[in-house]
Amino acid sequence: MTTVAAYAAPAAKAPLERTTIERRAVREFDVLIDIKFAGICHSDIHQAREGWGEAIFPMVPGHEIAGVVSEVGPGVTRFAVGDRVGVGCMVDSCRECDNCKAGLEQYCTGGATMTYNGVGRDGEPTYGGYSEKVVVDENYVVRIPDGLKLDEAAPLLCAGITLYSPLRHWNAGPGKKVAILGMGGLGHMGVKIAHALGAEVTVLSQSLRKQEDGLKLGADHYYATSDPKTFEELRGSFDLIVSTVSAPLDFGQFLSLLKSDGALVNVGAPEEPVSLNLFSLIGGRKTLAGSSIGGIRETQEMLDFCAEHGFGAEIELIRADEINEAYERVLASDVRYRFVIDTATI
Q1: Using CA atoms, how far apart are residues 97 and 127, in angstroms rounded to an integer?
Q2: Can you tell me whether residue 64 is helix, strand or coil?
Q3: For residue 223, what is the enclosing H or E element?
Q4: How many CA atoms lie within 13 A of 72 on its CB side?
């Protein structure tokens, strides 16, 4: 066991504070990672404040981890000391179900082991990336290409793959009209990735406040959803809408923007239930869907894709003692576009 410094929420809704946690000794197939940077995801806030249900405390959030391998177990073949690596939202799965065998570990039918606020198959609670080090099985670690800066790569481990996976699954590309709903930590990555895939990209945001950013990042069009004319003008326009919004929406309104056979895919997860008039799906054979992160293989593919196209996340680097302030700023949509913790300050 190794004792490391970390920032943890001692209880639901309590401010995060500096503490120490125990990391397990390196097992045969484990890698020990010196964490260099950890992104702050909106889901960290949902979980630290028990917005998605009962949680495990003390909680060390963080599932956007970028660092360097400092030790490997004797059976490790994929990584060596000094490698630049990342860890995303999960650190294990059953490895035996059909989804795991298909490289869809995120949909493990036995339940994937989450990077934090989870319980490992050894019965021990998992602690995330707001810490100095982490020990992870090599099968749930990805390589960060040299073309990506570590700090800009960290948010790709959640925000990047959360958008890449549905954009690829629903075939965003040349000839497709794609809308990204919400221009935040997730949405800005959706714009970059959809543009790099060759789709015609529209941002749907509450206001035009971030229009200049959206166009600079690759959007072809930018509309304010607070303007009723947007829904008249864009009716029946899109093959695919990816919603990154974590607040309840008027789904009928947004489904009206789809072409026949179009899909509205949710990656944002509101804490409250939503209602839906099914006629908004039936008319036009439309799909309302959800998508989580990607599997390990797809996450590596996403990192390689981002490196090939020369982009990471747009980030604001912060010190660890600024985490609580950063949480409030995320809730106020006052970040462009992802906070990343410099873990050297822990």
Answers
A1: 25
A2: coil
A3: strand 221-224
A4: 16
* Residues 221, 202 contacting (CB under 8 angstroms): yes
Can you say how many angstroms the Cα of residue 124 is from the centroid of all Cα atoms in its chain? Answer: 24
Residue-wise burial string across 20-30, b where 16 or more C-beta atoms lie within 10 A, e elsewhere: ebebeebeebb
Query: From the CB of residue 170, how many other CB atoms can be counted at a distance below 10 Å?
Result: 20
Sequential pLDDT tens for the chain (346 residues): 899 999 999 999 999 999 999 999 999 999 999 999 999 999 999 999 998 899 999 999 999 999 999 999 999 999 999 999 999 999 999 999 999 999 999 999 999 999 999 999 999 999 999 999 999 999 999 999 999 999 999 999 999 999 999 999 999 999 999 999 999 999 999 999 999 999 999 999 999 999 999 999 999 999 999 999 999 999 999 999 999 998 888 999 999 999 999 999 999 988 788 888 999 999 999 999 999 999 999 999 999 999 999 999 999 999 999 999 999 999 998 999 999 999 999 9
Task: Read off the DSSP letter of residue 341.
Answer: E
- Distance (Å, whole) CA 238 – CA 249: 18
Of 228, 238, 229, the residue nearest 199 (C-alpha): 238
205/224 Cα distance (integer angstroms): 5
Supply the pTM of this predicted model: 0.96
Q: Which residue has the tokens 């979980």?
A: 47
Tell me the C-alpha distance between 284 and 187, whole Å: 26
b/e map 203-226, b = 16+ CB within 10 Å: bbbeeeebbebbeebbbbbbbbbe
Facing residues of 32 across strands? Answer: 71, 135
